[in-house]
Each structure stands twice: as C-alpha cells, then as structure tokens.
Amino acid sequence: MTKKGYFGPYGGRYVPETLFPALEELDRAYEAIRADGDFQEELKVLLNKYSGRPTALYHAERLSDSLGIKVYLKREDLNHTGAHKINNALGQALIARRLGKNRIIAETGAGQHGVASATAAARFGMECTVFMGEVDIARQRMNVDRMRLLGAQVVPVSSGNKTLKDATNEAIRHWVAHVEDCHYIIGSVVGPHPYPSMVRDFQRVIGDEVKEQIMAEEGRLPDALVACVGGGSNAMGIFYPFVDDAVRMIGVEAAGHGIETGEHAVTLSGGRVGVLHGSRSYLLQTDDGQVIEPYSLSAGLDYPGVGPQHSFFKDTGRVEYVSVTDDQAVAAYGKLCSLEGIIPALESSHALAHLEVMARDGRDSLVVVNLSGRGDKDMDSVRPFLLGEDKR
Ligand SMILES: *Cc1c(COP(=O)(O)O)cnc(C)c1O
C-alpha cells in the first residue's frame, strides 16, 4: 500500500498552505459520500433522468467488418451536453451543495468542461465562474456563448500562453482567495488529492456499465479497452472497473504533428516526472523544468500533464500508452461518420484511429472503444481536411 493520496510515487498535494483546509474538508466529504446510499441514489437518478444514462454500448457492425475485429462503442457522446464530462460535473456539484457552497469555479480549455460545469451550476441554482485563456476564448466562441447562456461568468486569462494551463493557475489563485464559499470543479483525474480519486469514482460509471452490457451482449469480457487520454478521465472511467480482470487496456495520447516535430501532447510517452497543478505525475517539460506548451488539433487533448494514476499504470505496465497523430485522428473521424453515421469528437477519434493498428496486429478480437464525446464541436477543425476547404 502506498500513502493516502498517492498512486506509487505519483499524486499528492502540492498546493499553497491556504488550500489545505479546503482539500481536507473535500476529502472528508468525498469519503462520506462513497458510503452514503442517499447521495449515491440521488446522483444515480440525476445521471439517469437528466443526463440520459446508462449510455448505449453499440456494436459498430460496419466498422467491425471493415477492420476484421468486433468493435463496440461506449456511447458517452449521447450524454446531455455531448460528452462524459457531465458525469463528474454533476457529482461535484452535488458535493458542493453538501458542503454548503453555492459558488462554482472551473477552468476550461476547449470549453467542454466549462459547459459541463455551467450546466451543473444552472441545474442547482449555483453561481458559476469559468476561467479560460484569451487564446482559447477566441478559438472556441460557441462554447463561450453556451456558458454565458447557461448563466456562467467567463473570465479571460491573459497570463502565460493564455491557454488551459494558465486558466488552471488562475482558477487555483481564485480558489485560494474565496475558499469559504467556493467549490472548484476540476475537470479531469488531475490536481491535488482527493481530485484524481474522486473524479475517477464519478467517471467509473462508464466502465461499470460496460461490464454489465458486454456480459449481456457477449457473455464474456472484452479482450481490450481503448480510450483517448488528455488528463485521463474518460480513460480512467472505463478502465478502472476492469483493473483486476484479464483485459488489455490501451490509452491513446495525441501525437499532434508527430512526436519528432516536438508539436504534440504525448505526456506519458514523451514526458518526465514533475509537479503541475498540485500533483506529481508525468509532465511535458524542458530540462530546466519549464512546462512545454502541448499541441493537438483536438483541443481536449492538449494538456501538458496527466492524471497521477495513469503515471502509475504506465510504470506498472497495467495500461499500455500509445499515440496517434492529427492526420490519423481526422481519418478515423471521417471513417466513423461514413461507416456508422456517428460524428465522433476529435478526442475520441484518437482512440478509434488506434483500432487500425490493433486490426493489423491481430491480438484482440473483441474490443470496446470509449466514444467520449460527439464531434459537431470539431467542424471548424476538420473542415480543411475533410471537406476540401482552405485552412483558415
Ligand atoms: C475533455 C475531453 C477529453 C479529454 O479529457 P479526459 O480527462 O482525458 O477524458 C476527451 N474526450 C472528450 C469528448 C472531451 O470533451
């Protein structure tokens, strides 16, 4: 057993002293709700009636035929707001209410987590402030409009590279100053303890459902699970319930323009251990310890860190981590559209693209892919590639 809040040498709580009481309070609340039937029931009703769970496990027949392996898609794209992030946002909003906090803050890059947090805040009548880099605000107009429509205040962040890392720094600073009445909803399995464990437990509903659904369909567990890895929450959510089973697990990171170009987001395959946003994990950094700005066409995958439990799974070998370039992801995006009539998120398209490798190596015949979100949001990014327009 490793220390509480750690996964092997990863995780921990590298935060200013002023945040310790809030993290302790959150940890106690998180421990309490795990065993609290009323809380779990309330969350379950919310997920089912509000977000539309359980999401379907769909046998993608035409995709399977084209690959020569049997592929099921876990349809997280069918959730309210279009991705898995709502599972966590609703769970944390419920915890905030328990703690008597009626203000939510969140950070966002592409805006997906901001939208999920703003949605949960509206549902519970809470105030919501979302920190977002100025560059991202300019790139993601539609999600900024959605958040404002949902009643959230979007605060532009102009420090650093004006993207997700800087928005997260700003959210942490704001939290330090307003910790009494404020709950910080972190959007992935990252950050200081208890966030990586708590977010994992709010996302494991994905894997728990898959286990039941695949047993009902196939009478056995799959050979392999595949999911994309940004911060790592949709991957952890589908993997975690299978950790003790004989099932291969593959996490797919974004190789952007190619690892050799230096323009990528392959934290686990190409990073080194360091501390970012309150926990110790693999990290994209220079020899001097400066964080390297990641790149991916997919906005949800370009985060320079990764959840500490993934770092642990990498070292132990329990999960294999691979990577897929922008071009491969875009090809998989187009393929799912034309073969199945499903527009996948560019993030999820990274997981789909890896199926081509799996089909060639022939090790697995029954595979479940986590389709973490829907891809209408990515039209502007894929238009130059798939619809033959000039890059703009
Ligand atoms: C945010 C996002 C991701 C990446 O986040 P994880 O924490 O790695 O899951 C993946 N897919 C979609 C659709 C997202 O919105």
Task: Give structural notes.
It is a single chain. With 392 residues, this protein is an alpha/beta fold. It has 16 helices and 15 strands. Strands 3, 4, 9, 10, 11, 14 and 15 form a seven-stranded mixed beta sheet that branches. A four-stranded parallel beta sheet has the order 7-6-5-8, with helices on both faces. A hairpin with a 4-residue loop joins strand 10 and strand 11 (263-265). The protein is globular. It binds pyridoxal-5'-phosphate. Pyridoxal-5'-phosphate is lined by residues 83, 85, 112, 188, 228-235, 300-301, 345, 347-348, 372-373.
Keywords:
single chain; 392 residues; alpha/beta; 7-stranded mixed beta sheet; 4-stranded parallel beta sheet; 16 helices; 19% strand; binds pyridoxal-5'-phosphate
Mass-distribution shape: globular
Radius of gyration: 19 Å
Bound molecules: pyridoxal-5'-phosphate
| Total helical segments | 16
Largest sheet: 7 strands, mixed
Task: Map the helices and strands.
Elements: E1 6-7, E2 10-11, H1 20-34, H2 37-51, E3 57-59, H3 61-67, E4 70-75, H4 85-98, E5 103-108, H5 112-123, E6 127-133, H6 134-139, H7 141-149, E7 153-157, H8 164-177, E8 182-185, H9 195-203, H10 205-218, E9 224-228, H11 233-239, E10 248-258, E11 263-265, H12 267-270, E12 272-276, E13 279-283, H13 308-316, E14 320-325, H14 326-340, H15 346-361, E15 366-371, H16 379-386
Parallel strand pairs: 4-15, 5-6, 5-8, 6-7, 9-10, 9-15, 10-14
Antiparallel strand pairs: 1-2, 3-4, 10-11, 12-13
The chain binds pyridoxal-5'-phosphate.
Residues 83, 85, 112, 188, 228-235, 300-301, 345, 347-348, 372-373 line the site of pyridoxal-5'-phosphate.
